[in-house]
Write a structure and sequence with these properties.
single chain; four-stranded mixed beta sheet; 9 helices; 285 residues; three-stranded antiparallel beta sheet; 2 domains; alpha+beta; 9 strands
């Protein structure tokens, strides 16, 4: 017995060449099912863990990947290729993130978002009971930002008085469950940082549905704890892209009361350089 949902399909069979976003039909064969994902065998004893990984990504993300792989579609659009100046801007984000870690105005963003969480606490706790990971996350983001769920890279953006722009992506984590939340789409992050004077942070909303409490934390995507938990994934990425990141490590530290954001400039710069140099995803990735 093996798990055969959209995440663990490599492609739809060659007899399904008419598979499209607006025409979802086709079949798959046994050899189209992944027998292992990231070292985790596709076996019944691992189904819970594998399904939780699957739940972090949307139906649409998997559908686009399957369509491209099945039909050998040449990717539409071009991969983001930064100029020399844009590369410099991307790498400079490591220094900006380090500079802002103790900036009162930056820290105030976290305080304001935490206040919004407190103001919507009961509704957020109720939303924490939603089984579907994406619906749950979208609902909580809407409660915090007041937005209608239309998302780009970030859920909110703030320009500080010193001229730096902070983009914030809200991430929800159920503290009583083991999970590997999606991080970010790499090309989108690089393109955002390439504009210069820009940093990106996660605002984590940790929910304990059993004890009925919520903890929050504003953390740079270049924080050491976050980088140690970040893994690059190609499975869900469209072809001709650099892939996505997933937070597969232990994130419990960011929810502790004494946690302080820490950005190691050299480590962050190495990470960003690695993202820039990533090769495009191919159909065999």
């Amino acid at each position: 017995m093996i798990l055969a949902n959209t995440t663990f399909l490599k492609k739809i069979s060659h007899s399904s060449q008419q598979l499209r976003i607006d025409k979802i039909r086709g079949t798959f064969l046994g050899h189209d099912i992944l027998r292992e994902y990231e070292g985790i065998a596709n076996r019944p004893e691992n189904f819970d863990e594998l399904f939780y990984i699957h739940a972090q990504f949307t139906w649409e993300e998997n559908l686009v990947r399957l369509i491209e792989t099945t039909n050998a579609i040449v990717p539409a659009g071009q991969r983001f290729e930064p100029t020399e100046q844009q590369r410099a801007n991307i790498l400079q984000a490591s220094e900006l993130a380090n500079l802002l870690s103790n900036n009162p105005e930056y820290l105030q963003i976290g305080n304001e978002l935490s206040q919004r969480v407190d103001e919507n606490l009961e509704a957020i706790l109720d939303a924490g009971e939603i089984d579907n990971v994406n619906l749950r996350g979208n609902r909580i983001e809407q409660l915090i930002t007041g937005a209608d769920g239309l998302r780009l890279l970030e859920d909110m953006s703030r320009t500080l008085t010193i001229g730096h722009e902070v983009k914030v992506d809200i991430k929800t984590k159920i503290l009583t469950l083991s999970s590997n939340p999606k991080g970010f789409t790499i090309d989108k992050v690089l393109k955002t940082l390439a504009s210069g004077n820009t940093v990106i942070s996660f605002f984590f909303v940790g929910i304990n549905t059993e004890s009925k409490f919520v903890v929050t934390s504003l953390v740079s995507i270049l924080d050491e704890t976050i980088l140690n938990a970040t893994r690059i994934q190609f499975h869900w990425a469209g072809r001709n892209s650099r892939g996505v990141t997933q937070l597969t490590g232990n994130l419990s530290r960011v929810f502790e009361a004494d946690f302080l954001e820490s950005v190691n400039i050299n480590l962050a710069k190495e990470f960003l350089q690695k993202l820039i140099e990533l090769k495009p995803v191919t159909s065999d990735s």
